[in-house]
Amino acid sequence: xxIFILHYFDDVNSFNHRLFLKERDFFKQNGFNVAVTxxxxxxxxxxxxxxxxxxxxxxxxxxxxxxxxxxxxxGNFHPDIEREIKxxxxxxxxxxxxxxxxxxxxxxxxxxxxxxxxxxxxxGGINIYENGFFRGKRSLLSIISEDDEDHFRPGGxxxxxxxxxxxxxxxxxxxxxxxVLGDQIFFAPDEKLPQEQEQMIQxxxxxxxxxxxxxxxxxxxx
Length: 222
Prior knowledge:
Layout: E1 2-7, H1 15-29, E2 33-38, H2 64-74, H3 79-90, E3 93-99, H4 107-116, E4 138-145, H5 161-164, H6 166-173, E5 179-180, E6 184-187, H7 194-209
Helix pairs in contact: 1-7
């Protein structure tokens, strides 16, 4: 199985980054093919524009979706974008590792989606949802929350975390065909003792060992 880990972190010493390192090494040690993208050390520029492409068809007016369609047909993406698109296309399992920001993914990670989930290569026409290019592939969000779990329960101060994340589940992952697995959310890990943190990590690694047998989560279609 080909694994792709997409990772954003704030600090190299964070629980979030330590978890990523454990995930990466775990997959490699268990014989999986592993590709990674670390947006933080790569200084990934999240702003889309003409630089997404080697050339643009119109010098006077930029329409990203039109340029994506042309680039998909002619192989005209910037090499950095093409490299990331190929990682997505080649993966069987996409693992997202990031801290929760304002009920969603960090801006840099959303910018990655805006740039690489390109019309014609990642989705397009009838190739969405159940007919998406990524049907049969799986994806999972592994998220670090600084808040307590009780705050994200149904009826909690923030509401149900599963519903909060639905725009990612439905609008990004299911939209291109991924089977979405149940989220792995680490609540307030910095408030835990070191041995408790390590147990949280180990429990997730044990889950990942059998991830191919998991059934997709039920996602609200609005």
